[in-house]
Structures are given as structure tokens and as C-alpha cells.
Design a protein that fits this description.
Layout lengths: L2 H27 L5 H6 L4 H7 L1 H6 L3 H12 L21 E6 L6 H9 L7 E5 L4 H9 L1 E7 L6 H12 L3 E6 L12 H4 L5 H14 L5 E4 L2 H7 L6 E3 L12 H10 L5 E8 L4 H17 L4 E7 L5 H6 L3 E5 L4 H9 L3 E4 L5 H4 L4 H7 L5 E4 L2 H6 L7 E3 L2 H12 L5 H15 L3
Length: 427
Amino acid sequence: MNRKKIYKNEKKVTNRSKFENFLNNLSILRPDLTINFIKEILLNQHLYLDLNKDVKESKTCPIYHYYTFGYKEGRAFCSPNFRSIKKQSLQTGTKKVVFGDIPKNNASFLYRGYFAEIRNQDKNIIHNETELMKAITLIFSANEIVFIRPTIKSFKTKYFINLAKILNIKISMNFDDLLLPEFVLSKGAIRSQVIDISLVKNNLIEDSAILLNADKFILSTKELAKRFSDFNNNISVENNRLPIEYFLTEDEIYKRNNKKENNKIHLLYLSGSKTHLKDYSIISGCLIKLAMEYPENFCIKFMGTLIDQTSIFSNLGVETKFIPFVSFEEMINEMGRNDLVLVPLEKTIFNNAKSNIKFIEAASQGVPVIASSVDEYNAAIVSGVNGWLCKDEFEWYDTLKSIILKEKNIQAVGLAAYNTAIRSYSI
């Protein structure tokens, strides 16, 4: 037998062993279930064979094929007919599983999944890069599964919800944005005209049907709790918090502040995505006016995917820089290199329901923010003490002017913000 054939046979054995171990582990985790029942809830075998004639002709087990090859090849998942499958009365799991079909470096996944559970030993976190057999094995060990921003467009989300219901696992849903169709007009993407309103509304309507499966909602703000109460009374408000590991020490803040050049005030605007174009318009006029009046007193950096604004300011003689998206850790570090973070937000119900993570992130580095007067920033900031709040463009201009002319002790305000974040928003 030649080497290629030996290697091919060894690979088959390895794949088969991995799949058999997968089934065996599921059976161990749920000894109340028969192996036939487990297979029934893993795949609609008849439909998979009908859709994949090559698998049918090869006489390969459809479950084995999908989980070993088909999933990686991008073949369609054939969901079991859960309506004909009896829900189990027992619930033997012990772990909390947190799932979001979004990238693991997504801010919502970090704050609502990883950071929120960082001190919990009895948890497992899965995301869109987690291998499917591993994800299902972890679900079989669960007594609760928390879905972060679930969407019906995710086949994994739909399947895992049905799987949880059949296995009698508690279903919680975790949101940090007002993703309900009746508030579509207040979304930044719509107000900034970067996406079609009918498409967004239809997606939100479809996703809202999935909310009826929740046993509990975990929400980041009181405003969200108020708006989601029509779907379920079992709601807990858990504010976004940043792990203490990301915070500088006070000594580090003092040392960094002493090293900073004091000739200019360094401003940072984190635009995130283009959906914040309307928010940015709140401050664009006053920033340009300040650039025309005091170009030597400040410099400004833009971070994110907002249309590059640097040419406007450089033409007015202001030192400026554009920074594209970076990792979460680098974003936090970049905040610490500046004196003030700008957080303009339109006064809409969508923004009033958002959390104040920019305050938390900047404060972790001893840097204050100047923010629009929306609910969660009002809750965190005492204007002039641990940050600044502005109601309109005129207040933005007057406050920024006094800051860049160094009429305010910006470092003392940053330290006060730091102490607020340590006390109320760290974990």
C-alpha cells in the first residue's frame, strides 16, 4: 500500500473517531437521551440526502458527512423537524453557555459575553468561529444558554434555540441596542442614510419573532428594559462593565500625564462605523470653527470608518490623523494617548437606550469624555467634575473652546472619571 493511500485511510479513521467521540460525549452529557434521539436532533437526515445526491450515492451516514465534511464545505444545514420531536422533561446540565454568531472581537460580544462572564468559572463561551461539534457539545452541558443579539438570519442561532427548547435548557437573550422594528427610524444607520430603511425594518420584524422564545432578557440599560418589557417580564439590567485588567493604575496615569506635551490638547473622535455620520454632524461645525480660530491649540484624531475628515482640518492648519479600525486593546491604548474623547450623540430613543462604554473605556485610562446629554452618560457624568455634558452645538463649542484654551483642569477631571469607572463600571 503506498503512502498516499495509507495517509488517506488514517485520515478517515481520525475523522470517524472524532465523530464517534462527539456522539459518545453527547450521550455521556445527557444519559437520559437515547443515541437515536440524539441523532434525530442533530440533522434532518432524509432532507440532507435528498439535497446531496453524492452523499446518498456513497451510502455515507448523512450526520457523519455533514459534521465531518459538509459543514466545512458550506453545505446547507438541514434542521431537524423539531415540531415532531418531544421536549425532554429532565435538565441535567450545569454550565451557562454564552453564544453570539458574531466575531469574537465585536464590542457587543466582548461586553455582553466575555467581559460579563469573566469571573464566572461555570460558563462556556462560543462564537461564530467555534467548531460546530464543539459548540453542540458545550450546549449539551448547559442549564442555560444566553444568546447575544440573536438574529433569525443565523442558522446556528435558530438551531441552537430549538435545540435548547427540546433539551429543556433555559433560554436567555442579551441585548445592548434597541433592535425593535418600531424604533427603526431612530437607528443611526437610517438617520445617517447608509442603509435602506425597508431592508432594516424587515430584518428587525423577522428578528422580533425570535424574542418570543426567551425565558429571560438580559439588557444593558433601563431604557432597554422598558422597551423590551412587552415581550417578557423576566428582565435583568446588567450594565456594561470593563474588566479591571484593562485599567491603568493611578501611578501609571500620573506618570503618563507628566510625560505629555502641554502645548496642545489632543482630541480623539471614535466614529465606529459610518452609521454615526449623523452623530458626528453635531460637532463638525464647532470643530471646524475652532480649527479656524485656534489651529495651534489642539490636534485631533479620527478612528473608525467615518469618511476621512483629516483633509478639512489639515487645510486649516490643525494637526490631524486618521486611524482605521484596530483591536480592542489598541483602541484602549490609543484613548490613553489623548487628553479628551469626543462622544457626540443625537438625542434619540435609540441613543438614550445605549450604554456609556466610551466613558468607561476612556476613564479606564484616566481620560475624560465630553458627551452629548443622553441618558446613560447623564447617569455617569457630573459635568465639569468627571467629564462634560453638552445639550446642543453651542454648549459643545463653548466647552471645547474652554478646554483647548486650558481654562479647565482636564487631568483632574480625567482622574475623577477614572475613580467613577473603578467604582461603578469595573468588574
